[in-house]
Automatic annotation (TrEMBL):
<dbReference type="Pfam" id="PF13561">
    <property type="entry name" value="adh_short_C2"/>
</dbReference>
<comment type="similarity">
    <text>Belongs to the short-chain dehydrogenases/reductases (SDR) family.</text>
</comment>
<dbReference type="InterPro" id="IPR020904">
    <property type="entry name" value="Sc_DH/Rdtase_CS"/>
</dbReference>
<keyword id="KW-0560">Oxidoreductase</keyword>
<dbReference type="GO" id="GO:0016491">
    <property type="term" value="F:oxidoreductase activity"/>
</dbReference>
<dbReference type="InterPro" id="IPR002347">
    <property type="entry name" value="SDR_fam"/>
</dbReference>
<dbReference type="InterPro" id="IPR036291">
    <property type="entry name" value="NAD(P)-bd_dom_sf"/>
</dbReference>
<protein>
    <recommendedName>
        <fullName>Short-chain dehydrogenase</fullName>
    </recommendedName>
</protein>
Length: 271
């Protein structure tokens, strides 16, 4: 399949988690991909995997909250592939604790990565994406932008900010022919999710059980894989979604469709 043939994509956070599912998906669909990660060896590993199945990819690394990281990634896309059509922002971190427990430094760290990192990537990428005939930006947010669990105000607030940013960018970029959308995944089997489980137990079997248990909160009865989110991102970034902009697509297995109140099981005689 080649719906991204001839296109160039930059995926921030592409070396791990959801971004690790996005970058190979875009490449399989024909895109040349710049894989960004915090650690160069991890980003290079993903780029090497893409190259092994015959697609073009290069790696870059650095803290996404620093301007030079995004500037360097965009320059790499231009130098290696001659342009830029797609930006997918997937880099993100979690910080646990309520507002009292969250330090000012922790709050700033979450927003530097989750929000400022997206702004900086778009700031440097958009002048070139505007030159594309089918320019697109996809921002990875979270269901926690809409409904939050306990103890993650910094993360939830940052993800809510991304929904607002995506809408604002869609309005501004539309006249340039660039579409901007976001996706809001539910629980996804990523290192971040497993690190959350490890806060409660160090036993690998117990972590596995806890991840499966979290999956039962979703009507589909399981957590997502990064590749499942990557498939939706790929669609939104593709010409097939040519009139979709300013939207947020939930990839949550029905999580936000379910009311928390549980009905009792009916008696056998009432069935």
């Amino acid at each position: 399949m080649t719906e991204h043939a001839g296109r160039v994509a930059l995926v921030t956070g592409g070396s791990s988690g959801i971004g690790r599912g996005v970058a190979p998906e875009l490449a399989e669909q024909g895109a040349s991909v710049v894989v960004h990660g915090l650690v160069h060896d991890q980003a290079e590993s993903v780029a090497d995997e893409i190259r092994r199945f015959g697609r073009r990819a290069v790696a870059t690394a650095g803290p996404i909250g620093l301007a030079q990281t995004s500037e360097r990634a965009v320059e790499l896309a231009l130098d290696e592939f001659g342009g830029l059509d797609t930006l997918v922002t997937s880099a993100g971190i979690q910080w646990y604790g309520d507002v009292v427990e969250t330090s000012a430094e922790g709050w700033a760290e979450v927003f530097d990565t989750n929000v400022t990192g997206v702004f900086l990537a778009a700031h440097y990428a958009l002048p070139f994406i505007r030159m594309s005939a089918t320019g697109s930006v996809v921002i990875v947010s979270s269901v926690q932008a809409t409904a939050s669990q306990a103890g993650v105000p910094a993360y939830a607030a940052s993800k809510g900010a991304l929904l607002a940013l995506a809408r604002a960018m869609a309005v501004d970029e539309g006249p340039h022919g660039v579409r901007v959308n976001s996706v809001s995944p539910g629980s996804v089997d990523t290192p971040m999710l497993r690190a959350a489980a490890a806060r409660f137990t160090e036993d690998p079997d117990a972590i596995e059980k806890l991840v499966r248990n979290w999956g039962t909160a979703h009507p589909l009865g399981r957590v997502a894989t990064p590749a499942e989110v990557g498939a939706v991102v790929s669609f939104l970034a593709s010409p097939r979604a040519s009139f979709v902009s300013g939207d947020d697509v939930r990839v949550d297995g029905g999580l936000l469709s379910r009311l928390a109140a549980a009905l009792p099981e009916p008696d056998a005689g009432s069935r």
